[in-house]
Design brief:
The complex is a heterodimer. By secondary structure, chain A is of the alpha/beta class. Chain A is built from seven helices and eleven strands. In chain A, a hairpin with a 5-residue loop joins strand 10 and strand 11. In chain A, helix 3 crosses helix 5. A seven-stranded mixed sheet of chain B has the order 16-18-15-19-17-20-21, sandwiched between helices. A seven-stranded mixed sheet of chain B has the order 34-36-33-37-35-38-39. In chain B, a hairpin with a 5-residue loop joins strand 24 and strand 25. Classes of the chains: A alpha/beta, B alpha+beta.
């Protein structure tokens, strides 16, 4: 059965269509769901296997990016969310979705209602649209871990090429508030618990704080994180914008044989299916 | 009581403060500031202390990286502080979100506001602070400095009465006075209005006068383009008729042209695509951030308001400013400095387009000193709609008039009339209310709701409340059958608006829908789902009148026939004025290495990457050819290719062209240049002109006899080129107010701009190319015949203080063949890269291709020769001493490198044999090849001309915009 994906929309959501397309392309059954429908219970989260929060500017990113939506989710959907997560639902938040998850407290520690990290304004002071390199870390995220523990189902390695080895790949970032920040203890706990899933890297594949390879000045070059269960994932870059070859700016220069965002969806969908 | 919460970052690093500091140093030369900190200030009214604290903790304050101060000031150690807020009555978009969150938390909050505080550390004087405030921080049109905390955030006011305007008894000078600064109608038009009311034996209301002024404004009705013309003694057809007649050049592709809010052409699989380009010059001149925002918002809803509603899939932005380093002494009174305008306009486009989620894929920035009084700010948008819902419909009797989207306020009154007037030093203070602050999210949710309504077949027709508000929307929709509006049903932002203000207030975030009464329930349900307000305010009643009521008061009652047909057709006279431009050519022994770098740094050539990177061009996932690509993703492409249906390979190609500098010298040839540049860009990425259409924008001076003659020539150029290219114009816009009038009566004419946009379809985005060189050792071919005799208006001439009346005049006979050949070699996958030649010439294009390929090039100019005898003589050279006779073999290498002939291309091909074969039937010149060494080596036969480092060129090319935008890459 195709896993059902709830693509959550609200005022200012705008990367929902490409996210829908990516899920559909790799075999899931996505549906657009407005937050008002969940509030009114005309649609229920428990009918889905994956909850996906797309990018955009929910409520204009007023006060702080994703903040108003986070307040809304905590105020009205706390129970539905907790039930969804406890019943092994998967959550992915991309860009504004990631900002929202962090502001609900679901990332990095899964504490709904307790914010423990932030995505602050880019160090450059402005919105940035560019392609950057990322590296996948050994993390708790089960469907993206290249070094899986024995006993868990095994998946194919992501189809990486373009001469980029060791889990390095390219995606687009488009955000003004993507600088991951938390206090030292929180960062240390996250690192020890392997909650960092993606980092910005330089041409040699090394994590970097240097602009523009690290487009926002994120601490420890953090680009994406998961919660301790590994079932809630958030990242600033946009895998859904690189699921077809022609979405890559330099596809005409050859070399790319598989779109770099594809493996994230493939793995997520396979994991949701078993 | 109002609670005041100030929030700043814990860290001393303050990106906003750092950016401001750099800007102060760069533009004001104030160097005694050590540091700038910024804070956000929120004010909450009508809430208990406990609840205000709860709201602060849950919504406003994030202790992880912020410091907060509740009811107490921050930055007590700062030397100077200043707080900047929106004026009361200017809608602050953030307030809606604050109120929403309060409701979500069950907190009773009556009113709120948000503002920003700047704290300056170091020895800043009060005078310096005032200068910083005026020049960089506060736009008095919409913002204010908060000296004392406000006592009340709720705006209230008494409803103003409808007034009678005693027009019947006015003499000519009274009529002119009534029109001046407000109605912008001429005496003849005022008299027509006077006579109408004499005939019906009553005086008009203020609302009726406003409705007439708006409906008859140049902005809405395009009087000049409809006028009877006599140019240099010859009777000519109205401009608009000539342009519309181009539809017959390729009727097969046209779905609708010049009848709807955008031009519509055929796409694939039962879809159509639409395009529209709008200018927003007047608002952008006085409030660049808000003006640019509403420019984007306006053109998006033009796309949305086409047929039964199209989805916006792309946008473009084209700006003209004075050079950023223009001395403040040269800026006319009441005008804003160009670098401020540039930064603010870019920020407006960024904040609107990004938030609505429309990719900004294509654009350009041009500079000319004469834009110092008024910039050109053009925004284009493109959309997709099922073909069966792509045509304009008319309301049926009994249909409801619904208003959907943002509420009505006093901002945005008089936009249509004000945009039709000249700019003076009083424009800012007189017309300040005509600028709205866009609310992108308001428009976004309205778009979501309307597209859902359209998918459910619930919309009969719709239009926007842009220029003229309900007056234009209802007036236009109801022009055939009549309409009745009840103004008291309109939802307002605050009380106190006069009825005419309600009827005329504009917004990009509000539209009027025409819906059958049977559908109203479903419409309301869908709107509610998207948090969008929708209200029935009247109906199309079959009366053939425009009747507007406010409670039991009749505010307006006009015959539609008079409103829409009463305006007399203007008769206008154009007279060509002789232009006196002397020929003065650059020195022959010019240092080419030096001038080449200067050309790369010229505003019209230099890299716009810092701007491009602030616009989201990847949203919607449709980009197939982005603005920049190449090894380091920093080389510019000629156009945008997007894939509006993600599941399909079909492409929408978008390009544009303009050259104000050339238009100023020669409006006819300059216009030919603009069109050829636009279509050259189009074919350079792989587009086919048979499947494309044109959009015009004439941004011209107030049409006096001379300007009108120039405009007529520009239109003639458009018609001629459209015919040669077999292409239709499907949409267009004129903005004839590019004039600044000084107090002493002197006039500054802004350079005439003909902006041509091209959009169309291609069956497969895989068959397109980018401009970056792909391989080392490839053959570089120049395709098309360069005009190396006429360099008037080129960047090269501008930089060398050279002048010539002769602008590029390409031989059009081979050009169409060149264009179709480029299309077919790309479609067949036979070439690796293509870049058209435009400002900066062959040298500029070659350099950009090398930047993209991260490589160099070795070329020989000997093949490109002067076939025609050069027209200049020694006498004209002024200071330059030229002794040899120009001709074969002795062609000036600088003229070959820097000519800007439109319709010529640099093409990368695998080898010379293939190049010969592909381009056998068109003029072409094999120039050389790409090399691994990072230099460009130019020879002319056995003579070495120049060898230049690619890195140096790139540095020169990237420097100007990096400085303006404080961009460190």
């Amino acid at each position: 059965m195709k896993p059902k994906v709830c693509i959550l929309r609200t005022d200012g959501t705008n990367c929902d269509e490409e996210l829908f397309y990516a899920f559909e392309k790799f075999g899931a059954a996505p549906q657009y769901v407005h937050v008002n429908q969940l509030r009114a219970k005309s649609k229920k989260l428990k009918a889905f296997q994956i909850l996906a929060l797309p990018g955009g500017f929910s409520y204009g990113d007023d006060v702080a990016s994703g903040k108003i939506l986070a307040v809304e989710l905590i105020s009205y959907l706390k129970d539905q969310l907790q039930e969804f997560i406890s019943k092994n639902g998967l959550v992915i938040g991309i860009c504004n979705g990631f900002q929202t998850l962090v502001r609900t407290g679901l990332l990095p520690f899964g504490h709904l209602g307790k914010m423990e990290a932030t995505l602050a304004q880019n160090e450059s002071g402005h919105f940035e649209c560019r392609w950057i390199r990322l590296k996948i870390e050994k993390s708790r995220c089960p469907f993206l871990n290249l070094y899986l523990k024995p006993g868990l189902p095994t998946y194919s390695k992501p189809g990486l090429d373009n001469g980029l080895e060791n889990g390095v790949f390219e995606l687009a970032v488009n955000h003004g508030e993507g600088r991951f920040f938390a206090n030292n203890e929180t960062i240390a706990t996250m690192e020890q618990s392997n909650l960092v899933v993606f980092r910005y890297v330089d041409g040699k594949g090394k994590p970097t704080g240097h602009y523009p390879e690290n487009p926002n000045g994120s601490i420890n070059a953090i680009a994406g994180v998961c919660d301790p269960t590994g079932r809630i994932l958030g990242l600033m870059p946009h895998p859904e914008k690189f699921v077809d070859i022609t979405q890559y700016p330099n596809w005409r220069r050859g070399k790319v044989t598989e779109p770099h965002g594809a493996f994230i969806f493939k793995q997520l969908i396979r994991f949701a299916t078993v | 009581m109002i609670h005041q919460i100030s929030i700043t970052a814990k860290s001393k690093k303050d990106p906003l403060g750092q950016d401001l500091l750099a800007e102060i140093k760069r533009t004001l030369g104030i160097n005694n500031i050590k540091n700038i900190r910024t804070a956000k200030i929120y004010r909450l009214q009508g809430v208990s202390l406990k609840k205000a604290q709860e709201f602060t903790q849950k919504v406003l304050f994030e202790p992880i990286d912020q410091v907060m101060s509740f009811d107490k000031p921050l930055f007590n150690d700062a030397g100077q502080k200043i707080e900047v807020a929106y004026k009361l009555g200017v809608m602050n978009p953030e307030v809606g979100s604050l109120l929403k969150s309060a409701i979500d938390l069950g907190i009773n909050l009556e009113a709120a506001d948000a503002s920003r505080q700047y704290a300056f550390y170091g020895g800043l004087t009060k005078e310096q602070l005032a200068e910083i405030a005026v020049r960089l921080l506060v736009n008095k049109t919409v913002e204010q400095i908060i000296e004392k905390p406000p006592k009340n955030l709720i705006i209230t006011g008494k409803v103003q009465k409808t007034e009678k305007i005693l027009i019947r008894n006015m003499n000519d000078s009274q009529l002119v006075k009534l029109s001046k600064d407000k109605l912008f109608l001429n005496l003849e038009e005022m008299k027509v209005i006077q006579n109408y009311f004499k005939k019906i034996k009553r005086d008009p209301t203020d609302c009726e006068i406003e409705v007439l002024a708006q409906t008859w404004s140049e902005h809405c009705v395009h009087k000049t383009f409809k006028a009877k013309l006599i140019v240099d003694g010859k009777v000519k057809k109205p401009l608009i008729e000539r342009i519309k007649a181009t539809i017959k050049n390729n009727p097969k592709i046209v779905v609708s042209a010049f009848v709807d809010n955008a031009g519509v052409i055929d796409f694939y699989d039962g879809f159509a695509i639409n395009g529209k380009v709008e200018t927003h010059n007047s608002p952008s001149a006085i409030e660049p951030y808000g003006g640019a925002m509403t420019g984007s918002g306006g053109v998006f809803r033009d796309i949305l308001g086409t047929g039964q509603g199209a989805k916006v899939v792309a946008s473009t932005d084209i700006f003209c400013f004075a050079p950023p380093n223009t001395s403040s002494k040269l800026i006319p009174p009441g005008c804003l400095p160009p670098d401020y305008l540039l930064r603010k306009v870019v920020a407006g486009v960024r904040d609107y387009g990004n938030r609505v989620g429309i990719p900004t894929n294509n654009g350009s920035v041009h500079f000319h000193q004469d834009f110092r009084a008024k910039p050109t700010v053009a925004a284009g948008a493109y959309g997709i709609v099922p073909k069966k819902q792509a045509k304009k419909q008319w309301p049926k009797k009994g249909d409801l008039i619904l208003t959907i989207g943002g509420r009505t306020g006093r901002d945005g009154i008089h936009g249509a009339t004000f945009s039709s007037g000249e700019m003076t030093d009083r424009t800012i203070s007189v017309s300040g209310s005509a600028v709205q602050i866009g609310n992108a999210i308001e428009e976004k949710r309205m778009i979501d709701a309307i597209l859902t309504l359209r998918q459910n077949g619930l919309v009969r027709t719709l239009t926007d409340c842009g220029a003229g508000g309900y007056s234009s929307a209802v007036g236009e929709m109801g022009q055939k059958i009549g309409a009745r509006v009840y103004l008291e049903k309109v939802l307002l932002k605050y009380t106190g608006l006069a009825p005419w203000e309600i009827f005329l207030s504009e917004s990009q975030e509000r539209m009027v829908l025409c819906v059958s009464p049977r559908q109203i329930k479903k419409v309301k349900e869908i709107c509610q789902l998207y948090n969008v307000e929708v209200t029935a305010i009247g109906k199309f009643d079959g009366s053939k009148r425009l009747k507007v009521l406010y409670k039991d008061q009749v505010v307006c009652d006009l015959a539609m026939k008079f409103l829409h047909e009463g305006l007399p057709q203007r008769k206008m006279i154009g007279t060509t004025a002789k232009k006196q431009i002397k020929e003065k050519l650059p020195a022959k022994n010019i240092d080419l290495e030096n001038i080449w770098q200067k050309i790369m740094s010229h505003g019209n050539v230099c890299s716009k990457e810092p701007i491009v990177r602030m616009y989201d061009h990847t949203v919607q996932g449709t980009s197939s050819l982005p603005p920049l690509c190449g090894v380091n993703q920093d080389a510019p492409n000629d156009g945008a290719v997007i894939r509006p249906i993600l599941k399909k390979p079909y492409g929408l190609v978008i390009t544009h062209g303009l050259n104000p500098s050339l238009n100023k010298i020669d409006p006819y040839k300059g216009s030919i240049w603009a069109i050829l540049e636009a279509v050259s860009n189009y074919v350079a990425v792989g587009g086919n002109l048979k499947d494309a259409a044109l959009i015009d924008n004439f941004i011209w001076s107030f049409p006096d006899e001379k300007s009108l003659a120039d405009l007529d020539k520009s239109v003639d150029a458009c018609i001629k080129m459209a015919k040669i290219l077999k292409m239709p114009f499907v949409s267009g816009k004129d903005s004839l107010s590019s004039t600044y009038r000084f107090r002493d009566g002197r006039i500054l004419k802004i350079p005439p701009v003909l902006l041509i946009s091209v959009f169309g379809k291609i069956p497969d985005v895989n068959k397109t190319v980018s401009s970056d060189f792909k391989k080392i050792g490839s053959t570089i071919v120049l395709v098309g015949k360069p005009d190396i005799n006429n360099l008037g208006g080129t960047v090269y001439f501008d930089l060398t203080d050279s002048t010539s009346p002769n602008v590029s005049s390409p031989d059009l006979q081979p050009t169409t063949k060149v264009l179709s050949t480029i299309t077919s070699v790309i479609r067949n996958g036979e070439v690796m890269s293509v870049h058209d030649i435009s400002e900066g010439g062959l040298a500029g294009s070659l350099a950009e291709m090398c930047f993209g390929g991260d490589c160099g090039a070795k070329i020989d100019l000997a093949n490109i020769k002067n076939y025609q005898k050069i027209r200049y003589s020694k006498k004209m050279e002024n200071s330059v001493n030229v002794t040899d006779t120009p001709g074969v073999g002795k062609t000036r290498p600088d003229f070959i490198l820097f000519n800007e002939t439109p319709g010529t291309f640099l093409v990368e091909v695998a080898n010379p044999q293939l190049a010969q074969k592909l381009f056998a039937k068109v003029p072409h010149y094999i120039l050389g090849q790409t090399i691994a060494d990072q230099s460009i080596i130019v020879a002319q036969g056995s003579k070495k001309i120049v060898r230049i480092d690619v890195g140096k060129l790139k540095q020169s090319w990237q420097k100007p915009m990096k400085e303006i935008f404080h961009y460190e890459a």
